[in-house]
Backbone:
């Protein structure tokens, strides 16, 4: 009976741990792909890749801590998501700034030869850049923010589970992985 109650309590914690592990490996893939840009001398890719790599490491580590029913894992994961959100927002802001410093017609010699067409291309390009990177910034606030809230809420679940579940059941669940 006690083992079944402990298993039921552990289900929420294990779900969060599985999500963190999946998220961590996904971030590791994105970090690796992003770091490829650094091979071509792109400093922004290097910094972004490092940020994503740190987030990936912390997600995987936090997931492992949750699997051991360590409440510090939930806090690590929550703060990690806030950091990931900051990385995404800073990247989006930098990208908007960098795009504003370059003429959208630079690739074709700086002008089409028609002032109205040049103005239209600039307006459309600015709208696309604002929509793309502005959307990325909003996503970088909302998604990691909600994920951080989810992870922080798991600390209470872990705490209650450890307090209300006999030590031998916790030990059995930890051993079962």
Residues:
């Amino acid at each position: 009976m006690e083992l079944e109650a402990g298993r039921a309590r552990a289900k929420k914690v294990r779900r969060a741990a599985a999500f963190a592990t999946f998220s961590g490996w996904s971030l590791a893939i994105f970090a690796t792909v992003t770091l490829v840009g650094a091979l071509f001398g792109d400093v922004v890719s290097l910094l972004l890749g490092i940020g994503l790599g740190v987030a990936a490491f912390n997600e995987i580590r936090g997931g492992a801590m949750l699997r051991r029913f360590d409440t510090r894992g939930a806090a690590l994961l929550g703060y990690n998501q806030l950091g990931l959100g900051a990385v995404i927002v800073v990247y989006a802001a930098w990208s908007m700034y960098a795009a504003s410093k370059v003429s959208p017609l630079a690739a074709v010699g700086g002008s089409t030869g028609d002032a109205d067409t040049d103005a239209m291309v600039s307006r459309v390009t600015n709208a696309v850049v604002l929509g793309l990177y502005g959307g990325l910034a909003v996503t970088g606030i909302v998604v990691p923010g909600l994920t951080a809230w989810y992870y922080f809420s798991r600390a209470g679940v872990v705490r209650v589970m450890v307090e209300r579940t006999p030590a031998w059941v916790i030990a059995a669940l930890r051993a079962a992985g």
In short: The chain has a mean pLDDT of 88. Residues 2-89+148-176 form one domain. The radius of gyration is 22 Å.
